[in-house]
Amino acid sequence: MKKLLLLASLLLVPPAQAETLPEFGQDAPQITIRHNDERAFYEYRVNGVLKEVKVVPKVGKPYYLVPVEGSGEFSRFEESSLLIPKWVIFSW
User: Fold this and answer.
1) The pTM is what?
2) What is the mean pLDDT of residues 3-18?
3) Structural domain boundaries in the chain
């Protein structure tokens, strides 16, 4: 009987007291993943502006392409220059 009363009281809790999750703003980094036969591309954008592209070839080490301001060209780097969380949550 006590369990039934507890369950009924929980159902009566108004939804307004439920915690709402924060929404990501426009300034949150966006990552777009594209694949082709030879490599995968991870495009990192902040506020809609391309900041870097991580290139992961099927054979070889990953590298980063960073746009050079105003030139429309990219510079190649071995390490990322962005401070974006890149945690591996699960890997095989």
Assistant:
1) 0.58
2) 54
3) 29-89
